[in-house]
Amino acid sequence: MALEECTMSGPPPKHPSVRARRNKPKADFRTLPSAGREGEPPPWPLQPDALMTAELEHARDRVAGLQVQIDESEDARQRGRLRREMHRLELTITQLSLQLERAADAEVALWSELWATPQAVMWEESHAAREVAQYVRWKIRAEQGDMKAAAEARQLSDRLGLNPLALLRLRAEIQHVDEVEDKGRKRRESTAAPKPKRRSGGDDPRAGLYAVN
Questions:
Q1: Which of 43, 104, 210, 211 is the most buried (most CB within 10 A)?
Q2: How far apart are CA 33 and CA 175, in angstroms?
Q3: Are 102 and 116 in contact (CB under 8 A)?
């Protein structure tokens, strides 16, 4: 009897269906919409690349100075040397102008793409537009072969949650598409009004009545 009482003591074990999940997300762990942020991106907040712009203006000033020297020189050999230098600077001006133009187009394209991602919902809430713009600028430079820019872009990528591990550190995750579709289906089913059923002729109680003479 003592053995039986010892064996039966204590609460019964929980059924597996009501046991708490070990990997249940915490309350402060948020889910981002898989469809991404809606609406237009914020205005681009940065000015054109300062270093390249300064190089471009310096080259233009140098060309203007060389042209004055060419016009004033009476030495043919000196004029030839000045013209060759001016032609090299004009090529530099063309290259810098093209780089600035292409970089600006690439920045706008990447900027628009990023603000349509699920992470953009967090950036909008935390007013991180300038930080996102800095990432865009470093990223475009990195794609042009700048290794220092690549390192800066990687650091900002982590801070902005642009890879799964970084997003996990920010205590966020992107909602799976199948979960979204399942919720939408359940919502449609719950809001759909049931259609009234028509009675067949056999169900009509008047069908059994007949006249008496």
A1: 104
A2: 6
A3: no
- pLDDT band of residue 23 (cuts 50, 70, 90) is very low
Tokens encoding 172: 């966020």
Please provide the size of the chain in residues.
213
Q: How far apart are CA 66 and CA 57, in angstroms?
A: 14
Residues 6+ apart with CB under 8 A from 35: 118, 180
CA–CA distance, 67 with 83 (Å, rounded to integer):
8
Write out the two tokens for 135: 């990432």
pLDDT digits (tens, 9 = 90+) for 145-170: 899 999 999 999 999 999 989 999 99
Q: How far, CA to CA in Å, does 99 sit from each of 85, 94, 95, 153, 196?
A: 21, 9, 6, 19, 68
Residue type, 60: R
Close Cβ partners of 189 (under 8 Å, ≥ 6 residues apart): none
Q: Could you tell me the residue ranges of all domains in the chain?
A: 47-103, 115-177
CA angle 73, 79, 80 (to 5 degrees): 170
Residue type at position 101: E
Neighbours of 108 (CB within 10 A): 13
